[in-house]
Design brief:
The chain is mainly β. It has one helix and 14 strands; from the N terminus they run αββββββββββββββ.
Length: 225
């Protein structure tokens, strides 16, 4: 109940702040057959709910909260991600710099970790491309004091004759300390109707002998506000 109250409180604060001049609020909620993050099922293959709230100032600074229902090996059941950053249009490219605090309320020993990120994106007309990197420095208990870095690229290809349909391709590579690395990839499609979006994605990773890293197909239903 405490975790749910925290999420609701965050939503109320965001809604009130968005009424201020020069600030806009974007929000969405989603149902997914499982929550996949960087190719790994964070909900242990089970149904999950997701929510995202972002405040953006006219100066291009933004802050937000992301919440998800999880079911991981540590016994966590809620993930709360607080983020803030700045984006800038440089010619045809958009550069985005961000800092993220990813937390798991109730996690023994430490409830979260910090990541720093940056991405560059461009709309080429026939396709939208975004590539970026996320880095979590060492010395954080929840990461066993290891650092980790994640490189990723996303490719969205709208179908000219079907403007409501977009093909999606993604890939990523992660290094965790000096002990392990991982490739992940995904392929699917999204269909939109007014403020609704339905998606179907195939995910897989280079990790074997781990049920949560195996190939999987995920259906999602999202509502934008």
């Amino acid at each position: 109940m405490k975790k749910i109250t925290l999420i609701m409180l965050g939503a109320v604060v965001f809604s009130q702040a968005a009424q201020a001049q020069s600030v806009t609020l974007d929000a969405d909620i989603a149902f997914v057959t499982q929550y996949v993050d960087r190719g790994i099922s964070a909900s242990n293959g089970k149904v999950s709910g997701l929510g995202n709230f972002t405040l953006t100032h006219e100066s291009n600074f933004y802050a937000g909260i992301f919440a998800a229902r999880v079911n991981n090996a540590f016994g966590d059941d809620v993930e709360l991600e607080y983020y803030g950053g700045f984006f800038k249009q440089l010619g045809a490219y958009e550069v985005d710099l961000t800092i993220i605090y990813d937390s798991f309320p109730g996690h023994p020993g430490s409830d979260g970790f910090i990541e720093f990120g940056g991405s560059v994106s461009r709309d080429f007309g026939l396709a939208y491309v975004r590539s970026g990197v996320l880095y979590a420095p060492g010395g954080q208990n929840i990461l066993f004091n290891n650092d980790k870095i994640y490189f990723y690229s996303d490719l969205d290809i709208p179908i000219p004759t079907l403007p409501w349909l977009t093909l999606a391709v993604r890939g990523g590579y992660e290094e965790f300390g000096n002990t392990s690395d991982k490739w992940d990839w995904g392929l699917g499609a999204r269909a939109t109707y007014k403020s609704w979006e339905a998606g179907l994605m195939y995910y897989d990773t280079s990790i074997r002998n781990n049920d949560n890293a195996d190939a999987r197909v995920v259906f999602s239903l999202k509502r934008y506000f």
